[in-house]
Amino acid sequence: MSISPDEVLKIANLARLQIKQEEVEQYANDLSSIINLVEQMNAVDTKDILPMAHPLDATQRLREDKVTENDQRDTFQTIAPSAEKGLYLVPKVIE
Amino acid sequence: MHELSVSQLVDGLRNGEFSSVELTQCFVDRMQKFNDLNAFITELSERALLQAAHADKLIKDNQHSLLTGVPIAHKDIFCMHGVKTSCGSKMLDNFIAPYDATVVEKLDQAGCVTIGRTNMDEFAMGSSNESSYYGTVKNPWNKDRVPGGSSGGSAAAVAARIAPLATGTDTGGSIRQPAALCGITGLKPTYGRVSRFGMIAYASSLDQGGPFGKSAEDCAYMLQAMAGFDEKDSTSLDKPVPEYTQLLNASLHDSLKGKVIGVPEEYFSEGLSADVKRVIENAIAWYEQQGCEIKSISLPNTKLAIPAYYVIAPAECSSNLSRFDGVRYGYRCDEPQDLRDLYDRSRSEGFGDEVKRRIMIGTYALSAGYYDAYYLKAQQIRRLISEDFKKAFEQVDVILGPTTPEPAFKIGEKTADPVTMYLSDIYTISINLAGVPAMSVPCGFVNDQQSDLPVGMQLIGNYFEEEKLLNFAHQYQLDTDWHKKSPSGFE
Amino acid sequence: MQWETVIGLEIHVQLATDSKIFSGASTAYGANPNTQACAVDLGLPGVLPVLNKDAVRMAAMFGLAVGANVAERSVFDRKNYFYPDSPKGYQISQLEFPIVEHGTLDIVLGDGSRKTIGITRAHLEEDAGKSLHEEFPDSTGIDLNRCGTPLIEIVSEPDMRTAEEAVAYMKKIHSIVRYLGISDGNMQEGSFRCDANVSIRPKGQEEFGTRTETKNLNSFRFVERAINHEVERQIDVLEEGGRIVQETRLYDANKDETRSMRSKEEANDYRYFPDPDLLPVIIEPEFIEELRKQLPELPTEKIIRFKKDYDLSEYDAENLAMSKETAEYFEEVARVSKEKADSKALPKIYKLAANWVLGDLSAALHQDGLEIENSPVSASMLAGLLGRIEDNTISSKIAKEVFQAMWSGEGDVDVIIEAKGLKQITDSGEIEALVEQVVNDNPGQVEQYRSGKDKVFGFFVGQVMKLSKGKANPKQVNDLLKEKLK
Predict the structure, then answer these.
(1) CB within 8 Å: C50 and A63
(2) ipTM
(3) What is the CATH number for B415?
(4) Contact flag C45-B233 (C-beta cutoff 8 Å)
């Protein structure tokens, strides 16, 4: 299966990546060849095989409901690209 | 001093043969002298010397821990409080981590002195270190060759004797492959053995931190300090950590006699260089001489590992890397016009090509209509691969094969076609899918275009059996000296 | 054309844990921006989630309370989308394997009829942060304090047919989560929010119409209004020959209308997949049994018991049991009364108690904007008042005056009766004197009464009561008047 330039743009949109017009073709080629590699999986019948999400058959450990974190806003916001009055700033969002 | 083993360094420091400041200075000097390797993103010389002075005081006061005063290097993927943690990306070029990864915390507690932060493929995505925003690392054995990836900087630093130990992470071979290509020893532990907290995620269900050292014994020291349950990581193993360093002292011949080594036929088929094959067969012969039973086995789904990996890892990465949006930290584009522009440009300008490619593949594989055909299918294949290993370990103690199909390739040789690059991880990837531990051990050299290049054998163990692997490697290294060879110009 | 409305609700309930669902940051409401957003909540590189035990317990409790199946194995998934109040670029939620499935809930409508509403599922997820659009001229400010607050999203079957049913269902869910103590249910603070899926179809048609989802409904009144508006809008569209577009709409309480949220409409493809940082949550049957034992009495059981123990009407029992605090107040009144009053008098006192709690007390609370927990008239004070009504110390009418005095803090019932001289006159001699005076003063009316105009009797009662300043025992007044006028 191959991925068309249109699909490249659709995926880029979902992933919030900007692909320049002149790169679209290259992406379509690269992604298509990766998908071809991936589709080697189709050679095997996997009917009734339980999908494996984790390497170990472990189960979720639960944490006690305790407040353990204190306010570190100032530390965290020193590395923020834009923050004011304790808020992170982004260009105005119109809902 | 730079050729000493970790146990010799520990003894030397405690016996007062040299101080940690002297030792650290020696490695810091080498770090600066060999900076043309580009193994480091950030050098921490001054900080290291202060740490060393503190270590000396602790040793003097008899307050030392396992590795007090021993210099190490950290892959630039482990968050380190107050220190730039770039993950090899422009996206995090300005990111000063506000907290410590558990691995960093544990090695600090063990008394290690951190001399610097090593170069790596961007967000650990790559097999050659060529995707780093900070440029390619050169292989100390031949500077025209890649060191492997993604932990290329750590492997090159240990190979060039710039650091006795270094941390790495391994998602599809990122510790073992560069260890093999740089002629050193590297271990990927069982998934969950080393905490992932503070280790910047590439593919969460596959990522695992581990040590690089000259020898298995050196790795055992570092693993001892790194491993252990962490309540901050839900996938961390709640199992006691064995005393790796003591287990190594078991006597050579007793421990190997009668052990069964599985040799998977799929690891010796097409694609494996004849020269590499010969070197691996020599290693197998050595084990046979020690009284091991060599058993031919099959891991029938090996071929499916790469296809499955290139769905699972990109899918997880496409989601893991969504947090890099230019809002709370990291790179933000200039003058964003609106929210959409902020996202699109920050991410497009902040990520490199390979990272974008994998985000795109992962996004595609998870998108509506494709989930079952790709993601679910890959997870089913993952189960098949893991069952291959389970079956094999019913009959054998360890599995032995090559770590890579060929020695270090030339810089630029595989960058044009991503798929060719992906295929170089054929022998390492299935191990991550299963989650079992494995290591790469230097076992000889091949000559390629008048250049001697190291070869690594891969030892694969059953879940939680790192000590068995370390033992197998250690016995080998007691009798061979491949791991003692250093590249010319770095002696 | 006759249209039928089909409504399904998605209710988001914040759980009353101290810390977040996946981090150790506090969930307290109202803190300064971003002071309760820790490294995990901010989605810093390398951080990992660890699940809060109490969030799991609370979700399971809810499941038991609605007779649902609490899954032995549930799985957390990532819902991927970009928005500044979602710092990781995904929300941790549950898609395929939610913790609660297949419950039901009975609602009672205004005409006393009952209806069972199906609960499809309830899953655990994390809340998002808040976007503040008004703070800066050219920027939106992001406060991530709310990020990671545990939520259960309760999804109903499309079983409701009117806005009234939807509100009754929502109130019942609200009542249950408060009973269980798993949420404060505070709607102003956003602890309890609702999205309504609304569609219409010609009456008798089996197939569902196209639905819209209206978001941002944070009061019972808004839910009712928004649904009614949306139904009207859909009828207008269809009757003018248009078609309904499946979309997300926003209820604007100020303008009292719903409008399309075009900005959020671009093809959402959330790319759900199991979160690799979290493992499957396993709930052992023993844990469920333990929880079942800890379940408090819920409204349905309480209504049955109230009817039995206090001989209350369906209506009174239902209304008292709706709020846990109201029910507790009522039972406290009953308990205190039982200690003091004669057992024969109790049925009357219980009925009085129900009337007072749902009537005068509720009205006074409403007027002063108070919750019943903060009522100036405590349960034992009200019991005291009811006791005095029952033993004829005061009449029901005087009781209202005493209640107002108690409300203003003038003291207990007896203190007020004493101070204001409100004690009922029960001395028959004294009443007889009053009766005689009224009969003598109004010969014309006496004439009328005796000639068969029974209605005039009320006039005499009123006059006697007036003369006694309302304190005469009405029954005695009645009896004596009848005697005198014979």
Answers:
(1) yes
(2) 0.96
(3) 3.90.1300.10
(4) no
